[in-house]
Amino acid sequence: MERKAIYAVIICALLAGNNGLLIKSMASMSTGSIAWFRTAVPVLFLIPFLVKDRELHFRGTPKKMLLASFINAIRMYLYLLAFLYTSIGNAVVLFYTYPLFVTAIEYLFFGQKLQKSQTRFLLLAFIGIVITYAGKPFSFASNDFIGMLSAIGASIGYAITVILFKSETQNYSKNQLIFYQNLIGALVFMPFLIGLPGIGLPQIGIGVLYGLLIGIVVFKLFFYGLKELTAATATTLMYLEVVSAIVLGYFILDEKLSWNILAGGATILISSFYISKLNRKKELASST
Fold this sequence. Notes:
Layout: H1 2-16, H2 19-25, H3 31-52, H4 62-85, H5 88-95, H6 98-110, H7 116-132, H8 143-166, H9 174-188, H10 201-228, H11 231-237, H12 240-252, H13 259-287
Helix pairs in contact: 1-10, 1-12, 2-10, 3-4, 3-9, 3-10, 4-8, 4-9, 5-8, 5-12, 5-13, 6-8, 6-13, 7-13, 11-13
Protein backbone atom coordinates (compact mmCIF):
# COMPACT_ATOMS: atom_id res chain seq x y z
CA MET A 1 0.00 0.00 0.00
CA GLU A 2 2.84 2.39 0.83
CA ARG A 3 4.45 1.73 -2.55
CA LYS A 4 1.18 2.63 -4.29
CA ALA A 5 1.03 5.84 -2.26
CA ILE A 6 4.57 6.76 -3.31
CA TYR A 7 3.70 6.13 -6.96
CA ALA A 8 0.55 8.25 -6.56
CA VAL A 9 2.48 11.25 -5.27
CA ILE A 10 5.19 10.85 -7.93
CA ILE A 11 2.52 10.78 -10.66
CA CYS A 12 0.88 13.77 -8.96
CA ALA A 13 4.15 15.76 -9.10
CA LEU A 14 4.82 14.81 -12.73
CA LEU A 15 1.30 15.83 -13.75
CA ALA A 16 1.60 19.09 -11.82
CA GLY A 17 4.75 19.76 -13.85
CA ASN A 18 2.46 20.19 -16.89
CA ASN A 19 1.02 23.36 -15.33
CA GLY A 20 3.26 25.69 -17.31
CA LEU A 21 2.73 23.91 -20.64
CA LEU A 22 -1.05 24.01 -20.27
CA ILE A 23 -1.03 27.68 -19.24
CA LYS A 24 1.20 28.69 -22.16
CA SER A 25 -0.98 26.69 -24.59
CA MET A 26 -3.90 28.93 -23.53
CA ALA A 27 -1.98 32.18 -24.04
CA SER A 28 -4.56 33.34 -26.62
CA MET A 29 -7.10 33.61 -23.76
CA SER A 30 -7.12 36.40 -21.22
CA THR A 31 -5.51 35.61 -17.87
CA GLY A 32 -8.90 35.95 -16.21
CA SER A 33 -10.46 33.38 -18.56
CA ILE A 34 -7.70 30.86 -17.82
CA ALA A 35 -8.17 31.52 -14.10
CA TRP A 36 -11.91 30.85 -14.46
CA PHE A 37 -11.30 27.42 -15.99
CA ARG A 38 -8.77 26.58 -13.29
CA THR A 39 -11.13 27.50 -10.44
CA ALA A 40 -14.62 26.92 -11.84
CA VAL A 41 -14.09 23.45 -13.35
CA PRO A 42 -13.19 21.89 -9.94
CA VAL A 43 -16.13 23.70 -8.31
CA LEU A 44 -18.66 22.50 -10.92
CA PHE A 45 -17.18 19.00 -10.92
CA LEU A 46 -17.44 18.63 -7.13
CA ILE A 47 -20.96 20.04 -6.61
CA PRO A 48 -22.79 16.72 -7.35
CA PHE A 49 -20.50 14.83 -4.96
CA LEU A 50 -20.94 17.42 -2.20
CA VAL A 51 -24.73 17.38 -2.65
CA LYS A 52 -24.73 13.55 -2.56
CA ASP A 53 -22.66 13.54 0.66
CA ARG A 54 -24.62 16.48 2.13
CA GLU A 55 -21.45 18.53 2.43
CA LEU A 56 -22.45 21.61 0.45
CA HIS A 57 -22.33 23.89 3.49
CA PHE A 58 -19.89 25.78 5.68
CA ARG A 59 -18.56 24.55 8.99
CA GLY A 60 -15.85 25.83 11.30
CA THR A 61 -15.11 29.51 10.58
CA PRO A 62 -16.84 30.57 7.33
CA LYS A 63 -15.24 34.04 7.26
CA LYS A 64 -11.76 32.52 7.38
CA MET A 65 -12.61 30.10 4.56
CA LEU A 66 -13.99 32.89 2.37
CA LEU A 67 -10.93 35.05 3.08
CA ALA A 68 -8.63 32.16 2.17
CA SER A 69 -10.64 31.54 -1.02
CA PHE A 70 -10.42 35.24 -1.96
CA ILE A 71 -6.65 35.32 -1.39
CA ASN A 72 -6.37 32.11 -3.42
CA ALA A 73 -8.13 33.84 -6.33
CA ILE A 74 -5.53 36.64 -6.26
CA ARG A 75 -2.77 34.06 -5.91
CA MET A 76 -4.12 32.15 -8.92
CA TYR A 77 -4.13 35.26 -11.10
CA LEU A 78 -0.51 36.06 -10.17
CA TYR A 79 0.46 32.43 -10.71
CA LEU A 80 -0.91 32.49 -14.25
CA LEU A 81 0.80 35.82 -14.98
CA ALA A 82 4.08 34.29 -13.86
CA PHE A 83 3.91 31.45 -16.40
CA LEU A 84 2.60 33.69 -19.19
CA TYR A 85 5.30 36.37 -18.76
CA THR A 86 8.43 34.40 -17.92
CA SER A 87 9.87 30.95 -18.54
CA ILE A 88 8.45 27.85 -16.87
CA GLY A 89 11.76 27.36 -15.04
CA ASN A 90 11.76 30.87 -13.57
CA ALA A 91 8.09 30.68 -12.55
CA VAL A 92 8.10 27.24 -10.91
CA VAL A 93 11.38 27.76 -9.04
CA LEU A 94 10.28 31.10 -7.58
CA PHE A 95 6.83 29.76 -6.70
CA TYR A 96 8.46 27.03 -4.63
CA THR A 97 9.73 29.68 -2.22
CA TYR A 98 6.34 29.42 -0.48
CA PRO A 99 7.65 27.32 2.49
CA LEU A 100 9.99 30.22 3.26
CA PHE A 101 7.09 32.67 3.31
CA VAL A 102 5.05 30.32 5.52
CA THR A 103 7.92 30.45 8.04
CA ALA A 104 8.26 34.23 7.76
CA ILE A 105 4.50 34.83 8.18
CA GLU A 106 4.28 32.53 11.20
CA TYR A 107 7.22 34.38 12.75
CA LEU A 108 5.96 37.91 12.02
CA PHE A 109 2.25 37.47 12.76
CA PHE A 110 1.84 34.37 14.93
CA GLY A 111 4.79 34.67 17.29
CA GLN A 112 6.50 31.48 16.14
CA LYS A 113 10.14 31.34 17.20
CA LEU A 114 12.70 31.43 14.42
CA GLN A 115 15.60 29.04 14.80
CA LYS A 116 19.09 30.05 13.68
CA SER A 117 19.05 27.35 11.02
CA GLN A 118 15.74 28.72 9.66
CA THR A 119 17.23 32.21 9.49
CA ARG A 120 20.21 30.90 7.55
CA PHE A 121 18.00 29.10 5.04
CA LEU A 122 15.79 32.18 4.61
CA LEU A 123 18.91 34.23 3.84
CA LEU A 124 20.17 31.52 1.48
CA ALA A 125 16.84 31.54 -0.37
CA PHE A 126 17.01 35.33 -0.78
CA ILE A 127 20.49 34.93 -2.28
CA GLY A 128 19.02 32.28 -4.60
CA ILE A 129 16.32 34.72 -5.77
CA VAL A 130 18.99 37.35 -6.49
CA ILE A 131 21.05 34.81 -8.46
CA THR A 132 17.99 33.66 -10.42
CA TYR A 133 17.27 37.24 -11.52
CA ALA A 134 20.90 38.09 -12.25
CA GLY A 135 21.43 39.95 -15.51
CA LYS A 136 17.75 40.77 -16.04
CA PRO A 137 16.41 44.36 -16.08
CA PHE A 138 14.44 45.69 -13.10
CA SER A 139 11.68 47.29 -15.14
CA PHE A 140 7.96 46.77 -15.66
CA ALA A 141 8.74 46.92 -19.36
CA SER A 142 10.47 43.57 -18.95
CA ASN A 143 8.26 40.49 -19.24
CA ASP A 144 10.72 38.50 -17.11
CA PHE A 145 10.50 41.07 -14.32
CA ILE A 146 6.67 41.03 -14.35
CA GLY A 147 6.57 37.24 -14.50
CA MET A 148 9.12 36.63 -11.77
CA LEU A 149 7.58 39.28 -9.51
CA SER A 150 4.19 37.64 -10.06
CA ALA A 151 5.67 34.24 -9.15
CA ILE A 152 6.92 35.60 -5.83
CA GLY A 153 3.55 37.28 -5.22
CA ALA A 154 1.78 33.98 -5.96
CA SER A 155 4.16 32.23 -3.56
CA ILE A 156 3.31 34.69 -0.77
CA GLY A 157 -0.41 34.30 -1.48
CA TYR A 158 -0.14 30.52 -1.43
CA ALA A 159 1.76 30.64 1.88
CA ILE A 160 -1.09 32.67 3.42
CA THR A 161 -3.76 30.26 2.15
CA VAL A 162 -1.76 27.26 3.40
CA ILE A 163 -1.82 28.73 6.91
CA LEU A 164 -5.53 29.65 6.73
CA PHE A 165 -6.75 26.36 5.23
CA LYS A 166 -4.50 24.37 7.54
CA SER A 167 -6.27 25.85 10.56
CA GLU A 168 -9.63 24.62 9.18
CA THR A 169 -8.71 21.15 7.88
CA GLN A 170 -10.30 19.40 10.86
CA ASN A 171 -13.69 20.98 9.99
CA TYR A 172 -13.91 20.03 6.32
CA SER A 173 -13.62 17.00 4.06
CA LYS A 174 -11.01 17.00 1.27
CA ASN A 175 -13.70 17.64 -1.37
CA GLN A 176 -14.97 20.60 0.63
CA LEU A 177 -11.48 22.04 0.97
CA ILE A 178 -10.92 21.86 -2.79
CA PHE A 179 -14.39 23.30 -3.43
CA TYR A 180 -14.07 26.28 -1.09
CA GLN A 181 -10.48 26.88 -2.12
CA ASN A 182 -11.70 27.63 -5.66
CA LEU A 183 -15.18 29.05 -4.96
CA ILE A 184 -14.40 32.80 -4.90
CA GLY A 185 -12.14 32.50 -7.93
CA ALA A 186 -14.92 30.81 -9.92
CA LEU A 187 -17.22 33.76 -9.11
CA VAL A 188 -14.68 36.58 -9.46
CA PHE A 189 -13.31 35.40 -12.80
CA MET A 190 -16.73 34.65 -14.35
CA PRO A 191 -16.99 38.04 -16.17
CA PHE A 192 -13.81 37.16 -18.10
CA LEU A 193 -15.63 34.14 -19.53
CA ILE A 194 -18.42 36.13 -21.21
CA GLY A 195 -18.14 35.82 -24.97
CA LEU A 196 -14.60 34.44 -24.87
CA PRO A 197 -13.81 36.47 -28.04
CA GLY A 198 -11.64 34.63 -30.54
CA ILE A 199 -11.59 31.43 -28.46
CA GLY A 200 -12.53 28.18 -30.18
CA LEU A 201 -13.48 24.75 -28.93
CA PRO A 202 -9.86 23.47 -28.79
CA GLN A 203 -8.90 26.22 -26.33
CA ILE A 204 -12.03 25.60 -24.26
CA GLY A 205 -11.18 21.88 -24.26
CA ILE A 206 -7.68 22.65 -22.97
CA GLY A 207 -9.22 24.92 -20.32
CA VAL A 208 -11.51 22.14 -19.07
CA LEU A 209 -8.61 19.65 -19.14
CA TYR A 210 -6.48 22.13 -17.19
CA GLY A 211 -9.13 22.57 -14.50
CA LEU A 212 -9.75 18.83 -14.14
CA LEU A 213 -6.12 17.71 -14.30
CA ILE A 214 -4.57 20.32 -12.02
CA GLY A 215 -7.59 21.18 -9.89
CA ILE A 216 -8.95 17.67 -9.27
CA VAL A 217 -6.65 14.82 -10.36
CA VAL A 218 -3.46 16.31 -8.88
CA PHE A 219 -5.12 17.04 -5.53
CA LYS A 220 -6.81 13.62 -5.37
CA LEU A 221 -3.53 11.80 -6.05
CA PHE A 222 -1.74 13.87 -3.43
CA PHE A 223 -4.40 13.24 -0.79
CA TYR A 224 -4.39 9.51 -1.65
CA GLY A 225 -0.64 9.38 -1.11
CA LEU A 226 -0.87 11.42 2.05
CA LYS A 227 -3.12 8.79 3.65
CA GLU A 228 -0.31 6.22 3.65
CA LEU A 229 2.80 8.42 3.77
CA THR A 230 4.12 10.94 6.24
CA ALA A 231 3.67 14.61 5.32
CA ALA A 232 7.47 14.86 5.10
CA THR A 233 7.70 12.11 2.47
CA ALA A 234 4.74 13.37 0.42
CA THR A 235 5.87 16.99 0.28
CA THR A 236 9.45 15.98 -0.48
CA LEU A 237 8.28 13.91 -3.46
CA MET A 238 6.30 16.93 -4.71
CA TYR A 239 9.59 18.71 -5.44
CA LEU A 240 9.67 16.48 -8.52
CA GLU A 241 7.15 18.97 -9.94
CA VAL A 242 9.96 21.50 -10.34
CA VAL A 243 12.19 19.04 -12.18
CA SER A 244 9.28 17.88 -14.36
CA ALA A 245 8.28 21.46 -15.25
CA ILE A 246 11.82 22.54 -16.15
CA VAL A 247 12.47 19.40 -18.25
CA LEU A 248 9.17 19.83 -20.15
CA GLY A 249 9.89 23.51 -20.77
CA TYR A 250 13.37 22.66 -22.05
CA PHE A 251 12.39 19.83 -24.41
CA ILE A 252 8.94 20.95 -25.59
CA LEU A 253 9.15 24.76 -25.55
CA ASP A 254 12.91 24.94 -26.14
CA GLU A 255 13.38 27.16 -23.07
CA LYS A 256 17.00 27.91 -22.23
CA LEU A 257 18.54 26.71 -18.99
CA SER A 258 20.87 29.56 -18.02
CA TRP A 259 23.51 29.27 -15.30
CA ASN A 260 21.56 31.59 -12.98
CA ILE A 261 18.29 29.61 -13.16
CA LEU A 262 20.23 26.41 -12.40
CA ALA A 263 22.36 27.87 -9.59
CA GLY A 264 19.68 30.13 -8.13
CA GLY A 265 16.98 27.49 -8.53
CA ALA A 266 19.08 24.87 -6.75
CA THR A 267 19.77 27.32 -3.91
CA ILE A 268 16.08 28.19 -3.53
CA LEU A 269 14.89 24.57 -3.65
CA ILE A 270 17.49 23.39 -1.13
CA SER A 271 16.47 26.21 1.22
CA SER A 272 12.76 25.52 0.77
CA PHE A 273 13.27 21.80 1.30
CA TYR A 274 15.15 22.23 4.59
CA ILE A 275 12.81 24.97 5.82
CA SER A 276 9.88 22.58 5.21
CA LYS A 277 11.73 19.81 7.03
CA LEU A 278 12.44 22.05 10.04
CA ASN A 279 8.82 23.24 10.12
CA ARG A 280 7.51 19.66 10.16
CA LYS A 281 9.89 18.77 13.00
CA LYS A 282 8.56 21.73 15.01
CA GLU A 283 4.97 20.66 14.35
CA LEU A 284 5.68 17.10 15.46
CA ALA A 285 7.45 18.33 18.59
CA SER A 286 4.55 20.64 19.52
CA SER A 287 1.98 17.87 19.02
CA THR A 288 3.67 15.38 21.33
